[in-house]
Amino acid sequence: MNYEDILYEVADHVATITINRPRVMNAFRARTCDELIHAFREAGYDRQIGAIVLTGAGERAFCTGGDQSDHEGQYAGGRGVVGMAVEEMHTAIRDAPKPVIAKVRGYAIGGGNVLATLCDLTLAGESAIFGQVGPKMGSVDPGFGTAYLSRVVGEKKAREMWYLCRRYTAAEAKEMGLVNAVVPDADLDGEVVRWCAELVERSPTAIALAKTSFNADSESIRGLGGMAFQAVALYYGTEESKEGVAALKEKRPPDFRKRM
Question: Where are the domains of the chain?
Fold first, then answer.
């Protein structure tokens, strides 16, 4: 596959997958999702790779979720229930039989926050900012982004993140269990290299079995999310949801209740 939206590099038994759309804060479109799915499958089944790193290009953002400029009731031009293969992308991260590390600088917001949550480990620079925006945007991730998040940070905190759409510093994210370690931004690359060096020394089969076991405990969320994304697809066609996208483009506060 010829990649346009991501970069794929392998060094020292580590595959690094970089969302390369810095002009839109590494927001993903349909093609981005397809490329990420392909890259995670390539890395996941390469026996020479012991760890996978997911990150975003530039200093401003890890990922800010779906590209709203590509969203008109449905995301344009892609597979999946909502016009992007989001569910399949999440599955590719979980099913890769290798530990996946999210390397986060800047914003990990919305769907980007979901990606950081789904990765096996998350290492953040001090600049990292985490949070959800769905109810501000006329959107929601009703699968791993909600149910699995509650397992990671606790149900009360997960509900706070989704209902209020607040933003959280890297230190706050570490305190709630969303992040494994926080270091100065200048030290983040080196810290990720050190964690990966430890991982590639471990038994790949043992790690694959451990990851499968961890995933089995939350596997029911996959089915729940698949069903709920059907509802999200219908929701995207409503005036209420479209108001969120319109408000963003017009740089004004949304008025959802007038569109219900």
Answer: 6-185
Mean pLDDT computed over every residue of the chain: 93
Mark residue 23 as left, alpha or beta (left: phi above 0; alpha: psi -120 to 50; beta: remaining): alpha
- Listed residue (124, 93, 126) closest to 111, CA to CA: 93
DSSP character string of 66-120:
B-GGGBSSSBTT--STTSS-HHHHHHHHHHSSS-EEEEE-SEEETHHHHHHHHSS
Nearby residues of 206 by Cβ (< 8 Å), 6 or more positions away: none
Q: Is the pLDDT of residue 39 over 60?
A: yes
Return the CATH fold of 6-185: 2-enoyl-CoA Hydratase; Chain A, domain 1 (3.90.226)
- From the list 81, 72, 74, 66, the residue with the least C-alpha distance to 36 is 66
Structure confidence by residue, pLDDT tens digits, 61-73: 999 999 877 655 5
Rounded distance between C-alpha atoms, residue 28 and residue 42, angstroms: 19
This prediction has a pTM of 0.93
Query: Do residues 112 and 64 touch, judged by C-beta distance below 8 A?
Result: yes
In whole angstroms, give the CA distance from residue 190 to residue 160: 33
100 strand-pairing partners: 52
H or E stretch covering 48: none
- Per the CB < 8 A criterion, the answer to whether 60 and 23 are in contact is no
* Residue-wise DSSP of 193-219: HHHHHHHHTS-HHHHHHHHHHHHHHTT
Alpha-carbon dihedral of residues 41, 46, 52, 56, nearest 10 degrees?
-60
